[in-house]
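[Discussion] Sanity-checking designs against the backbone

I'm trying to build intuition for which residues belong where. Below is a C-alpha cell string of 574 positions. I'd appreciate it if someone posts a full sequence so I can compare it with mine line by line.
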C-alpha cells in the first residue's frame, strides 16, 4: 500500500487549497466502504472520496462526479446528511506523520462535528464524530472483541490510533539515525531499518531514501559508510511539509502504473509527473482495481453509456406516466360531460363543481376559475383525446425504450469484457449507430480491424465459438451456427453467446459443462462463485423483433450451474 503519512500530508495541502471554507452540498455512499462528498468552494464543485478499503484505502479529490453505489439508507448515510450536508469545511488537520485526516464540519444548525479519515490498510476507516468527541457512526464498526485497544462504536469516545514507539522524522539527527541503523540485526536492509525506526515511513519512501543516498534501494546496513547522505535525502523528501513543493508521480513499469508518491520516484520504473496527488492515486487505483490495460480507453465510452442510459431511463419514466394518464382517460370524458350538464349553474371564478350523479357520493370536479364552464369541459375532452392517442402510441414507444435499455446493458457488458482496442471501439461505434452519441466527421485514419469471436476446442474435441460482444453474438448465433448446434447463455444477465458445433449429436457432459463455464465467465456474473447457464438447440433461439443485434429470446432450454472459468491456452483452436 502506497498511501502513507507523506501522501496524506500532500492530500491535506491540496484540500486546504481547494475545499477549505467550502460547503458540502451532497453526501453519498460510493460503495459499502467509501464515502463521497460534493463540496462547493471557490465557485467550483469538488468531489471528495474517502475509502476504507483494506487494499485500496485512499482519500482524494475525484476528477469526475461521484455516483451513488449503495441504495439502502444506512445509519451513517443518514447521519452524514444531517451533520455534513450544508456544513462548511472549517478545518483540515493531520496529526504529524499519521495516516489520519480530520475534516471539521461547521453546520449552521447542528454545530461542529468531525469526519475522521483513517487510511491504514486493513484498519482503514471513515468515522463521523460529534462536537463532544463521541463517535456517531463509521464505515466499519469495531467491537471490543475485534480490537480491545481501540473499539469504534456509536456513543464511544473517539481516540486517535495508538502512538507508535518510533522517532519523528522531524527530530532526526545524524546521531539518532546512526542509532537506528546500529540497533538492527546483521543483514538488515537500510529501508527496513528506516521503516522500523521512523514514524510515518512507508517501505516505498524508505527504499527511495536508500536509492537516492546509496544507489541501491535494498542496500544493507553494513554497507552504509556515511550517515550524512541518508540524513540529507530524508530532509529533502520531507521539505514539502514546510514549503509545499510536492512533486506527485506515478511510476510506470511495462507501461502500467506500479506505485505513486507525492515526490518524484527514482528507484522504480519510469516516473510520470502528475498534476496532483489525487490524480496520481486515481491513475494507480483505476489500473489496479480493474486489472485492465484498456481502462483509460474504456473510460469515455463508459461515461457515454451512462449518459445514454440516463436519457433512455428518463424517456421510459415519461412514457409510463403517459400510460398511467391514458388509463384515467374515461374520467376526463365523464368530467367534461358533467360540466356541460351543469354549465348553467357554474358561476365565473368557480373552482370546483359538485355534480349529483345519482350513484352514491356526489362527483367533485376541479375547475379552472379563469375558464368558462364550456371551456373547462373542452379542456377535459382535449385531455381525453390526447390520452386515447397515447394509449395507442405509448405501448410501442415504451417497448422500444425497454429494448434500448436492454441493449445498453449488453453494451455495458461488452465494454467490461472488451480485451483489446477493436472491441472497445466496437462499443463506441454501436453507441453511435444507435444514435446515443452524435456522429463525428469522418477523419482519414487507418480503421481498426474488427474483432473476431473466440474459437476454442472443448475437452471432447468439439469446436466452440464465443461471441464477446453484441455484434459477435449475432454473428456466431445466426450466421456461423447450424440449427442443431447447442447455444449457451448465462441466465437472466447480459453476456456472451456460446456455440458448441455438435452437428446434432448429443454433446458429452464435459463439453456442456465447459461451454457453460465460458458463458458464465463472459457475462456480468464473472466474479460470482456459481452461475446458472441456460442452453438449448440453436433452432430455438430467435432475434427480438426491432431490437439491436444480439438480443434474443429462447425456449426449450435446460440449465446447468457452474463456476465461471475463462479460456486456457490448450483450448485455443488452430
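Best answer:
Here's mine. Compare freely.
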Amino acid at each position: 500500500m502506497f498511501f502513507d503519512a507523506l501522501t496524506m500530508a500532500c492530500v491535506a495541502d491540496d484540500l486546504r487549497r481547494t475545499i477549505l471554507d467550502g460547503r458540502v452540498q451532497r453526501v453519498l455512499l460510493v460503495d459499502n466502504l467509501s464515502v463521497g462528498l460534493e463540496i462547493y468552494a471557490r465557485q467550483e464543485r469538488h468531489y471528495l472520496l474517502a475509502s476504507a478499503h483494506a487494499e485500496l484505502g485512499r482519500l482524494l479529490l475525484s476528477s469526475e462526479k461521484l455516483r451513488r453505489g449503495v441504495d439502502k439508507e444506512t445509519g451513517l448515510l443518514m447521519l452524514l446528511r444531517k451533520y455534513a450536508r450544508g456544513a462548511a469545511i472549517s478545518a483540515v488537520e493531520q496529526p504529524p506523520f499519521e495516516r489520519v485526516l480530520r475534516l471539521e464540519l461547521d453546520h449552521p444548525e447542528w454545530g461542529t462535528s468531525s469526519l475522521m479519515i483513517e487510511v491504514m490498510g486493513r484498519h482503514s476507516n471513515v468515522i463521523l464524530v460529534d462536537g463532544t468527541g463521541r463517535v456517531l457512526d463509521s464505515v466499519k464498526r469495531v467491537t471490543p472483541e475485534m480490537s480491545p485497544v481501540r473499539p469504534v462504536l456509536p456513543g464511544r469516545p473517539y481516540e486517535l490510533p495508538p502512538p507508535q514507539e518510533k522517532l519523528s522524522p522531524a527530530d532526526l539527527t545524524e546521531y539518532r539515525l546512526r542509532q537506528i541503523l546500529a540497533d538492527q540485526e546483521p543483514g538488515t536492509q537500510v529501508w527496513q531499518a528506516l521503516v522500523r525506526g521512523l514514524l510515518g515511513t512507508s517501505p516505498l519512501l524508505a527504499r527511495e531514501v536508500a536509492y537516492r543516498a546509496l544507489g541501491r534501494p535494498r542496500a544493507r546496513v553494513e554497507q552504509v559508510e556515511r550517515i550524512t547522505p541518508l540524513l540529507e535525502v530524508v530532509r529533502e523528501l520531507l521539505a514539502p511539509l514546510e514549503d509545499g513543493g510536492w512533486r506527485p508521480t506515478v511510476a510506470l513499469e511495462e507501461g502500467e502504473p506500479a506505485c505513486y508518491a507525492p515526490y518524484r520516484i527514482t528507484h522504480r520504473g519510469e516516473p510520470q509527473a502528475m498534476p496532483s496527488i489525487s490524480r496520481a492515486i486515481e491513475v494507480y487505483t483505476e489500473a489496479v482495481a480493474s486489472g485492465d490495460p484498456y481502462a483509460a480507453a474504456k473510460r469515455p465510452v463508459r461515461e457515454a453509456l451512462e449518459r445514454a442510459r440516463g436519457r433512455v431511463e428518463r424517456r421510459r419514466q415519461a412514457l409510463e406516466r403517459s400510460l398511467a394518464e391514458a388509463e384515467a382517460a374515461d374520467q376526463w370524458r365523464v368530467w367534461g360531460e358533467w360540466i356541460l350538464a351543469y354549465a348553467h349553474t357554474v358561476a365565473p371564478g368557480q373552482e370546483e363543481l359538485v355534480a349529483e350523479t345519482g350513484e352514491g357520493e356526489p362527483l367533485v370536479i376541479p375547475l379552472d376559475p379563469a375558464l368558462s364552464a364550456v371551456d373547462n369541459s373542452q379542456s377535459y375532452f382535449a385531455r381525453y383525446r390526447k390520452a386515447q392517442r397515447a394509449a395507442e402510441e405509448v405501448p410501442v414507444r415504451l417497448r422500444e425504450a425497454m429494448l434500448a435499455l436492454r441493449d445498453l446493458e449488453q453494451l455495458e457488458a461488452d465494454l467490461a469484457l472488451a480485451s483489446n482496442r477493436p472491441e472497445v471501439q466496437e462499443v463506441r461505434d454501436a453507441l453511435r449507430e444507435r444514435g446515443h452519441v452524435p456522429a463525428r466527421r469522418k477523419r482519414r485514419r487507418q480503421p481498426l480491424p474488427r474483432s473476431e469471436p473466440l474459437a476454442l476446442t472443448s475437452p471432447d474435441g468439439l469446436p466452440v465459438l464465443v461471441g464477446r460482444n453484441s455484434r459477435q453474438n449475432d454473428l456466431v448465433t445466426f450466421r456461423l451456427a447450424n440449427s442443431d448446434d447447442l447455444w449457451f447463455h448465462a441466465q437472466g444477465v447480459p453476456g456472451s453467446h456460446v456455440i458448441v458445433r455438435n452437428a446434432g449429436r448429443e454433446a458429452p457432459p464435459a463439453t456442456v459443462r465447459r461451454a457453460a463455464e465460458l458463458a458464465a465467465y463472459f457475462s456480468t456474473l464473472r466474479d460470482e462463485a456459481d452461475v446458472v447457464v441456460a442452453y438449448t438447440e440453436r433452432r430455438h433461439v430467435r432475434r427480438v423483433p426491432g431490437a439491436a443485434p444480439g438480443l434474443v429470446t429462447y425456449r426449450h432450454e435446460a440449465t446447468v450451474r457452474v463456476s465461471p472459468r475463462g479460456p486456457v491456452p490448450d483450448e485455443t483452436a488452430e
